UniProtKB/TrEMBL annotation:
Cytoplasm is among the record's keywords: no
Descriptive protein name: Thiamine pyrimidine synthase
Pathway assignment: Cofactor biosynthesis; thiamine diphosphate biosynthesis
PROSITE patterns the UniProt entry points to: TAT
GO molecular function list: metal ion binding; transferase activity
Pfam family name, one: NMT1
Metal-binding listed as a keyword: yes
Length: 231
């Protein structure tokens, strides 16, 4: 195919703007920005690493630094403070932040199905939300609203579940410190399977938790005044 017949988004914007006599919303030569990830470097951000290796950002005149997040560390403060131009979060977190007057907007979404799940071992499985009653669940404490939402959707009292603060590691489950983990389907269950540890996964999206995840956010000010970069 002739590449000129299929212009990229910036080329399209530039051509369209020129056609109506406007100034195209293009970034200045090599804009430098920070992008706040929602977790540690992992496979879920693979597209960004591939873009860096293949030079796609250079083609767009962007110098992007990916900033790792981690357990018990929310994404929104670096975006609000301006340390990061944009961040990766989830729709429910952003809705709660906006309700508290945070100046965010969601500008894109990467995942079609929410990846949060409950992982357990075959000897003590969690197959349905009701199985969580009386269990010890390992999770980062800032994810408590996620567990609460799942419980509310399935008429379960969250107080009947013991929350244990854990890091991004399957060890507490494997060693019996907890009965299950709240994690992503692309993360700890995969690590356990690679190690030959049989595990059971309950995808929360199959039990009513149908919320967009891996959503890109930026402040209203950045969208208004740095539109060439955020787009």
């Amino acid at each position: 195919m002739n590449a000129s017949l299929f212009p990229n988004r910036r080329q399209f914007l530039a051509t369209g703007a020129a056609a109506v006599g406007a100034t195209p919303l293009l970034a200045d030569a090599h804009s430098t920005v920070n992008s706040q990830l929602s977790w540690l470097n992992s496979v879920q951000f693979g597209g960004r690493y591939i873009a860096a290796r293949k030079g796609y950002r250079d083609a767009e005149a962007l110098d992007v630094s990916l900033i790792q997040d981690g357990p018990n560390a929310p994404v929104d403060p670096p975006v609000v403070s301006g340390t990061a131009l944009m961040g990766i979060s989830a729709a429910d977190y952003i809705a709660a932040a906006v309700a508290q007057a945070a100046p965010f907007k969601i500008i894109a979404g990467a995942m079609q199905k929410n990846p949060f799940e409950i992982a357990s071992l075959a000897a003590n499985p969690v197959n349905t939300p009701a199985d969580l009653i009386g269990k010890r669940i390992g999770m980062a404490v800032f994810k408590t609203p996620i567990l609460r939402a799942l419980c509310t959707l399935n008429h379960i009292d969250i107080n009947q579940i013991e929350i244990v603060s854990t890091q991004d590691d399957p060890a507490p489950l494997v060693t019996g410190q907890v009965d299950c983990l709240l994690c992503w389907a692309t993360d700890l269950p995969v690590a356990m399977t690679i190690k030959g540890i049989e595990n059971i996964t309950m995808l929360m999206a199959d039990h009513g938790y149908a919320i967009h995840s891996l959503t890109y956010i930026a402040t209203e000010d950045s969208i208004a005044n740095r539109r060439a970069v955020t787009s």
